[in-house]
Amino acid sequence: xxxxxxxxxxxxxxxxxxxxxxxxxxxxxxxxxxxxxxxxxxxxxxxxxxxxxxxxxxxxxxxxxxxxxxxxxxxxxxxxxxxxxxxxxxxxxxxxxxxxxxxxxxxxxxxxxxxxxxxxxxxxxxxxxxxxxxxxxxxxxxxxxxxxxxxxxxxxxxxxxxxxxxxxxxxxxxxxxxxxxxxxxxxxxxxxxxxxxxxxxxxxxxxxxxx
Length: 211
Description:
alpha/beta, 33% helix
């Protein structure tokens, strides 16, 4: 890229970081391209759904979420039917999968009664708002995050007054003593990676991204 190129806000942001700190890892480049608040692909919130770039299984049929709910119920029983559980989803997209799972879980009253909270690991403020609406969270009971215009805590009145909370990272999730049941659909394939190449010297060298 050259100084006169029309890179857009995100391109200029990445270029400025490289010029300031030197070449960055492929992982850092992917992280910026996908989730940067300056126009990151997922941060924009326009990737999912029939009007977006791709459609995931939950958006095609509610049966997918129903099947996952049955799977969760089975594993809850295998765990000895713990009294308190927490549903944790990584990269919940538009909230469709979680919505379908909660609705289907109502068919198993004992399991549904064990769900003490829903924990969504989502960095995109726009997608958080979509998830908030999809799960039927009560706007009057929603606490907004202090550092961004996005819900941090809500209550899903439409799904049994279950508390909903949003996080930027998995290690921030606080299930409050409940047994976490974790779902990650089409999530790990989009995680940033480090790339290495074996050089002529026989050693491995990390591939970096420069301007």
